Amino acid sequence: MTDQELLQAAATYQTPLYVYNLDQIALRYKKLSGAFSADTRFFYAAKALTNINVLKYIESLGAGLDCVSIYEVQLGLRAGFSKERILFTPNCVDLLEIEEAMGLGVHINIDNISILEQFGNKYAGSYPIFVRINPHIYAGGNHKISTGHIDSKFGISIHQLRHIERVMQSTGLNIEGLHMHTGSEIKDAEVFLQGLEMMFELCSHFPNLKYLDMGSGFKVPYQPSDMESDVESLGSKVQVAVEAFSKESGKKMQIWFEPGKYLVSESGHFLVKANVIKQTTATVFVGVNSGFNHLIRPMFYDSYHTIENISNPSGPERIYTVVGHICETDTFAWDRKLTEVREGDILVFRNAGAYGFEMSSNFNSRLRPAEVLYHDGEFHLARRRETFEDLLRNQIEVL
Ligand SMILES: *Cc1c(COP(=O)(O)O)cnc(C)c1O
């Protein structure tokens, strides 16, 4: 997909606009699955991007789906994932939501002792489950997205192993899988290997185990100096570790991963229009027709997104501060070098597939953007742009 084609999409569907290149998702999936042994499984973390067409496409590639709410489970089933290929990994939900997932027949991952006990008392071993362990590995990345540290709400501390065992033995729980997810944007593959070794040690405590789910954390490059997780090297190291473990213990575990960003980030391009160029005493602002209501990552996580002016790619380079039109500080990028921006130019944010549209809102009573797929050289509208009526759709005018 070329920038020229992106400009055509902006002209056809207007801006702001999310465009997803499905071919890119396929490339990423092939790269990842090709790096690991055939008995490794990949469960796409739906929360990164749940457009139903994207889910259907990822299903067609052969992946499973990791869901964090019962509605993501329902979307996954609707998209065609069989129940065996869905893992439900909620946190801080009540037993009712877990029971809904049981009703749908998907794999269930429990992340606290309280629910583990309630579940065990009611169902004993009649429905197999996963247990989410917090290994307390500090995985790096932004503190807000790190989940394995001691202050994290996620998972059951590895130091509570005895407690998990007691619940399992006294209620007869059937624990078929262990899960850990230490965070996002893990720079060092050693974090995964360290986690895997901890999982292997846990195996002797859980006689029914079949699956070890290593979560995600695959890093994708957002800026030129960023590195990408070296999945080939990780894949071969994991294979060596798994073979050594199975030789030593006589047990065969299937390894699962849950890539979100890694599969969809790069596929996404977010197109906006430069509304105004505003020169102040301190800087030159480009004010665009969007804001953190459409792409919150820069304001929420201090994330970097490459921005390019595709309307004027060979213009002279100048320094800009790119801001949105929300009534709040709403900065996409400070002191960014862009080719000269004129009012009306189309700017593109790269790597906008993951946690872009998905975290959008109607703040400031702005409408959410349209979503377009690019597949086999053609664009397809996959979600229409919201209209004014959408703002009122669920409101009840009682006055
Ligand atoms: C968010 C999440 C993922 C995906 O993380 P990425 O950084 O997008 O790859 C995987 N597993 C669980 C349990 C998650 O919460």
TrEMBL record:
Domain of life: Bacteria
CDD domains, alphabetized: PLPDE_III_DapDC
Record-level Gene Ontology MF annotations: diaminopimelate decarboxylase activity; pyridoxal phosphate binding
Annotated positions of the N6-(pyridoxal phosphate)lysine modification: K47
Catalysis: reaction(s): meso-2,6-diaminopimelate + H(+) = L-lysine + CO2
Pathway: Amino-acid biosynthesis; L-lysine biosynthesis via DAP pathway; L-lysine from DL-2,6-diaminopimelate: step 1/1
Active site (record annotation): C327 (proton donor)
Key words, A-Z: Amino-acid biosynthesis, Decarboxylase, Lyase, Lysine biosynthesis, Pyridoxal phosphate
GO biological process annotation, one example: lysine biosynthetic process via diaminopimelate
Family: Belongs to the Orn/Lys/Arg decarboxylase class-II family. LysA subfamily.
PANTHER family registered for this protein in UniProt: DIAMINOPIMELATE DECARBOXYLASE, GROUP IV DECARBOXYLASE
Listed name of the protein: Diaminopimelate decarboxylase
Organism: Planobacterium oryzisoli
